[in-house]
Amino acid sequence: PHFIIQVAEEDDAICFNINEDPGTVLRLIHDPATGLTVNGEIIGDKEPSPDPKTRRTYFGRLGIANPHMDLQIEVTTETLSLGSGATRSTFSWLDTVMIAQDGMLVAIHRNENMTVSFGDGATFVIVLHQVWKKHPTHRDFLGFYVVDSHRMSAQTQGLLGQFFHPFDFSVSDVHPGSDPTKQDATMVVKNRRLTVTRGSQKDYRKKSHTGTKVPCWFVHNNGEGFIDGVHTDYIVPSLF
Amino acid sequence: LPEGEGVVNGIEVYSTKISCKVTSRFAHNVVTTRAVNRADAAKEVSFDVALPKTAFITNFTLTIDGVTYPGNIKEKEVAKQQYEKAVSQGRTAGLVKASGRKLEKFTVSVNVAAGSKVTFELTYEELLKRRKGKYEMYLKVQPKQLVKHFEVRGTRCPVGSGSPAGSRLLCGVQAPLWDPGSPVGSRLPCGFRLPSSSRPVRSAQEAEQVHVPPRPQGHVSFKPSLEHQRSCPTCADTLLNGDFIITYDVNRESPANVQVVNGYFVHFFAPHGLPVVPKNVVFVIDISGSMAGRKIEQTRDALLKILDDIKEEDYLNFILFSTGVTTWKDTLVQATPENLQQAREFVKNINDEGMTNMNGGLMRGIGMLNEAWDGQGAARRSSIIILLTDGDANYGESRTDKIQENVRNAIGGKFPLYNLGFGNNLNYNFLERLALENHGLARRIYEDSDAHLQLQGFYEEVANPLLMGVEMEYPENAIQDLTQNNYKNFYDGSEIVVAGRLLDQDLNSFKADVKGHGAVNDLTFTEEVDVKELEKAFEEQSYIFGNYIERLWAYLTIEQLLDQRKKAQGEEKENLTAKALGLSLKYNFVTPLTSMVVTKPEDGESQTAIADKPGEEANTVTPSMAYLTNYQPPQTPYYYVDGD
Fold it and tell me: What ipTM did this prediction achieve?
């Protein structure tokens, strides 16, 4: 899956990929103050490419847990289920339904997306990407967007969560890269110098089928140097 | 047929076809029988059809020697005058009368001249209701003699809502096939139940066919050959006597489905995957002397089985009423394993005694639920009160209108009351009125070996509420003539159906919201209805029968008006009656307010047949048995149908 970190202060974005085997669960957000956690399980294509470099992976299952509310939300490309204590409500991506529960609001929009809001301080959107059911290679997958995180604590971690706090970066020495259609540059971030490549990724929140292009600086090697530690530090044993 | 075979008393019934077409839960059934009089003299031919009580006859025609006489719908009083005139002239009459638990019997006799042919065609329509996760179409098949071409054919026509395969037949015919080696019978995907006194069908596979093709339309047919019908290889009498049951559910991709045709819409709502709302349930049980013996035993059996199914998060209590009122516990108690064990002991010791203090029992039960209601605050719990009685109140407050008033005031619209009337010696209309007035329903429990299963079955229907306070909302300026759109509870396995009319036929789209309170959260399901797209999809399927949504709307509206009429009085009742009558006449439905009359001018004199629909009250009166007892073969053909 690809990650996009928009840096409002710089009016720019940084992106990176995480390449891991299908079945791997990654920690995206963990706020130790509230316990709010978001994990995602990776899936691959139906017919994975034998070359690991060209293998495409996505998120196929996402789990949102809020222990303070005794709540677990599990989203797959087929179903969306909300567990509250011992009870569980299951919905399908064919539903359009709004669910209100103890200050949390979940809105499922048929075949498009699901919005989860915890009060007014944390809002996530999960986008369903559907492909032709009989496509020989590709399969449906999920996108995860953080729309609002201002109530989340400064200790929030995770592949996305660590970037909820303001950070600076600078880009210099822009020059043609090994791919003549793209430019490379030197990025200074978190006191590290990284070689990055100018590219773009897509934001599918508003246009769920075509997406909107987001220009970004791409960090190579699983976000090495940009993320805290290495990407394998974010592998967790299970969705919840 | 070989000479003489299949001819009984000079009459050969050479074809009986029952065609059942279900479109989106709305069943359209046509029963056609063709017969010929092979005798040298005029003979009488009888046409008997058992149709579901919930069905409305919509047409009946007679064709004699190629001339068809259509049925005309008339207000009951008008039809009655014609009927009485016919009876006064000494002519015989058929009957529509209650027959068993689910059926009404439609009977008509016609005198057929020597060598003449007659065709009877009866059409009836019914909205199939979903219970415990399935719809059931039920037919009683009992030809009186061998029929050369006998066929029951069921077709389920799917309807598109943007998804052509949105509905499909999940099950074929499910009925145990009689098997001499097994009292229960073996089950086949398609079967036909035969009485144990008959010998088995020699080859089940030859007798039944199930066609459920991969395409959306599904067919089921039962077409026994003469060999299959014969009671023995050399017998001329038939062994066909059974129930033909088609059960199915729809492949439900989303909880709601809206269909629009010609300015009418229907909205089906049946979510699944939601947790069960915990409930407070009070059983108010009649233990008066009339319950003695089998009824009290069956009640005990049913309650014991129900106790096995009660979930730990539920609260319950038992109120027993006879001359006095006794309770198991003073308040509702949680269904913990210990409490359930105590409850079992209590139930095992229930014995009959005394008279029937129904008002006392109900008041105690309602009071207990009210206490729990007031005490539970914002807790999400569904409250249900279930009354079981086998007779009329005869101790304490016995005036039905006063009991109604007391119950209405005590419940205050907060929770539903379900009334189970055990047997026939009770005022079922009162129980029904009482239940309908309090957002519940009444159900008759038939005195039979399976009464405990009927009781238990009813409990299962209401045991799993998934939503409370369900409201179906549509834009006010776009919809009119809406059928009931709010319900106290939605139960797992059931379905809410709301129909209405679009105010503006050129409307492009509208939004249908369903709001309800679940076990842990409040939910709003939204359906964006693209009218134009749906209309287009339905145009492509016009082969089904184009105006079925309008007829479904009319059926549902009439049914609900008749229910409202049961609990209304005075001017309100008159208005409801007028509305229901107007729609029955407009849409050709034989309801308790209308009759269908077939008139054939005969030698300058009108001959009349009438099809009626009895109400539940018909069960409490003795149906007329006078017909055919004074039969004298008339000189000219005659035919009558009457309701009891």
Answer: 0.89
